[in-house]
Every structure is written in structure tokens, then in C-alpha cells.
Design a protein that fits this description.
Layout lengths: L1 E6 L3 H12 L4 E7 L2 H11 L3 E4 L8 H11 L3 E6 L7 H9 L3 E4 L6 H5 L2 H11 L29 E6 L3 H9 L10 E5 L3 H14 L3 E4 L10 E4 L5 E6 L7 E6 L11 H12 L3 E5 L8 H10 L2 E5 L8 H8 L5 E3 L1 H11 L2
Helix pairs in contact: 2-3, 3-4, 7-12, 9-10, 10-11
């Protein structure tokens, strides 16, 4: 049984969510709390496996709870809050403080709205319950603003990354260590809601020297820029035209087995087709198997494929799936991926 503590200052929400969780035989709601201080005290007392935590509450908010809990009794926390509908800042602060994942609470207080995310919520609870609590504590790293000396001849032309649960922190760790004159475009598919993606791009722009943008149909990839897939489309890369070597972003309505909008497989398959052995790609922490098919295609095309190791992955699902397919050439801790990629170009 997975022991869950529910924290929300709305009586209605506590009742509805409690009913939702009660429908799953593997989940046991051990208690509820109305504010951050109450959540901290009940975490010490009840020792839940997972905490579902609202952020905006009276007196002591959810961010207070995350910081106190992570400092004294680290526990897997899923942020379940409507604050992301208008302001992603508190969500990023909570993730940076050690929360595992975020699920946007639908607008309004009608039961049908929150019940629409029931399956997602239960799936996330099962996944984060397995997380090693020691992996939840993050260290702040300083962005690399220095330039690096790269070879005139570059063996690779693109760096592609796929990630999911735990991905925002992992991506920040990698991108903050990429030098300011990085000579390749970087394309990323990270599982997150559409409104999250734009906020995440803005956050990265404020902390690293490279330009970051959310992919739009028709974007032509430029060296030294970071492109993040939107949260409401599957994207792929194609040639700008028959005479051009440049890649352009396209949207597709094609649906993929493991995950959609954005699908890591969709992006990676197009990188394999377009770049072949001129691509270097990494699959990072994430729930499920998305990216394994794409990484296998990249591996077979001669691309250099990297997976984040189990020790540093919040959830080892996506890297493990690619490793199990025999699609990975190098398994690395998250702190070494940026340096390895840079060395491959030097």
C-alpha cells in the first residue's frame, strides 16, 4: 500500500480527491492537512510515501511545507495546484526545493474538472512512491558563462534531449554547464503542460547565456540556440528545402504509443532520419518508455546516444527502457552529461 498525505485548504477538494484515491486499492490515504505547517507536522507523524500538496493556502503555504519537509524528513511530493494556471513561479520554486512533480489542478471547483486528471494523478503517485528520497535534494549550480575552444571540424550537428518526471531539474543541470559559444542547436522534448513550457523557457533564458525558445512551426534551427517542444503539439524536424542543409520545425497530428504532446519518440525519430551519425542525443529521467524507440533509431543510424544513470535519475523509467533496447552507447550521471557532450566536440 502506498501511504498518501493530502494537503489542501479546500474542504471540497479534500473530499473529491479522497474519493478519487479511495477507488485505487493500492493507495491508502493516511491523513489530510489544511496548510503547510500542518503538512510538515503530519509528515513527521504519519510518515507518508507520497504527499499531494496544494501551493496556495492560508497562513503557511505549500512552498513552506516543501522546504521544511525536505530539510528534515525528505518525502516524495507531487504539487497538485491551480496556481500553474496563472503563475508558474511558485511551481518552479517548489520543484527546485525538492518536489518530485507537478500536476495542474483544472480551473474551477467542479468535481468533473478534478476527476478529469484522476488517471494521471494515480499514475504519478505510483511512480514517485518508488523514488529514492536522497535524489530529491538538489544543489544549485552556477551557469557556465565561459566560452570553449571547439574543433573547426565538428563530428556532430545537433544535440537532442528527451525527459519527463524530474526533467526540469535535470535539464537545468545539463544546460547550465553548456558553454556560451556552444556550436550546435539543442532540441528538447520534455513532458509538461503547454503553459509550463513557456514559463520554463523564460526561466532558462534568465539563468543561462544561450537563447531559449519554444518551438514554433517553421522555425529554422540556429547553432547555439535551445528549442523546447511545445506542450500541445508533437514536433519533428525536416529539411528546410531540397537544397538546404538547415532543419526546420514541423507540427504533426500523428500519435505515438508512449506519450504525446510532446512525444520524445516523434522528435528523436526525426533527428535520426535527418542527421543520422551527425547527431548526439541524451535520454534523461522520466516516467514510462517514451524515447526508447527514438533512441534505438538514433543508435542504429550511427548517432551517439547517452542515458542518464539510475543513481541520479528521479525516475529511471525512460533511460532504462532505452538501455534495455540496447540503444545506448554511454550511461552517465547527470552532472557529467554536459561535459561529455562538450568533449565530443573538442
Amino acid at each position: 500500500m502506498i501511504k498518501v498525505l493530502l494537503v489542501d485548504d479546500s474542504n471540497f477538494m479534500r473530499m473529491v480527491i479522497s474519493n478519487m484515491l479511495g477507488e485505487d486499492a493500492g493507495i491508502h490515504l493516511v491523513g489530510s492537512a489544511e496548510n503547510g505547517h500542518d503538512a510538515y507536522e503530519k509528515t513527521k507523524l504519519l510518515k507518508p510515501d507520497v504527499i499531494l500538496l496544494d501551493l496556495i493556502m492560508k497562513d503557511f503555504d505549500g512552498l513552506y511545507a516543501v522546504k521544511k519537509i525536505m530539510a528534515e524528513c525528505p518525502t516524495s511530493i507531487i504539487i497538485l495546484s491551480g496556481v500553474g494556471n496563472s503563475d508558474m513561479g511558485p511551481v518552479f520554486e517548489a520543484l527546485e526545493a525538492g518536489a518530485c512533480d507537478f500536476l495542474n489542478k483544472p480551473d474551477g471547483t467542479k468535481e468533473g474538472g478534478i476527476r478529469g486528471i484522476s488517471n494521471q494523478l494515480i499514475l504519478k503517485i505510483y511512480e514517485v512512491a518508488k523514488v529514492d528520497k536522497n535524489k530529491l535534494l538538489r544543489k544549485n549550480t552556477v551557469a557556465n558563462i565561459n566560452q570553449h575552444t571547439f574543433d573547426t571540424y565538428l563530428p556532430y550537428e545537433i544535440f537532442a534531449i528527451g525527459s519527463s518526471t524530474g526533467g526540469p531539474g535535470a535539464l537545468e543541470e545539463v544546460l547550465k554547464h553548456i558553454p556560451s559559444n556552444f556550436p550546435l542547436p539543442i532540441v528538447i522534448a520534455q513532458h509538461m503542460p503547454a503553459n509550463f513550457v513557456h514559463s520554463f523557457a523564460a526561466r532558462l533564458t534568465a539563468t543561462i547565456p544561450l537563447k531559449v525558445k519554444v518551438m514554433e512551426k517553421g522555425d529554422v534551427l540556429q547553432a547555439g540556440q535551445i528549442y523546447i517542444a511545445p506542450g500541445d503539439h508533437n514536433v519533428y524536424l525536416s529539411k528546410e528545402n531540397l537544397l538546404s542543409k538547415r532543419a526546420v520545425v514541423e507540427y504533426t497530428t500523428e500519435q505515438f504509443v508512449e506519450f504525446n504532446e510532446p512525444s520524445v519518440d516523434c522528435l528523436m525519430l526525426s533527428v535520426a532520419k535527418l542527421y543520422g551519425n551527425k547527431a548526439i542525443a541524451a535520454i534523461l529521467t522520466g516516467m514510462g518508455r517514451d524515447g526508447a524507440v527514438g533512441m534505438e533509431a538514433l543508435f542504429k543510424s550511427g548517432a551517439y546516444t547517452i542515458a542518464q544513470d539510475e543513481r541520479t535519475s528521479v525516475v529511471f523509467g525512460m533511460p532504462k527502457a532505452a538501455i534495455d533496447k540496447g540503444a545506448i552507447k554511454q550511461v552517465l550521471p547527470i552532472t557529467q552529461i554536459a561535459g561529455f557532450v562538450v568533449s565530443a566536440l573538442s
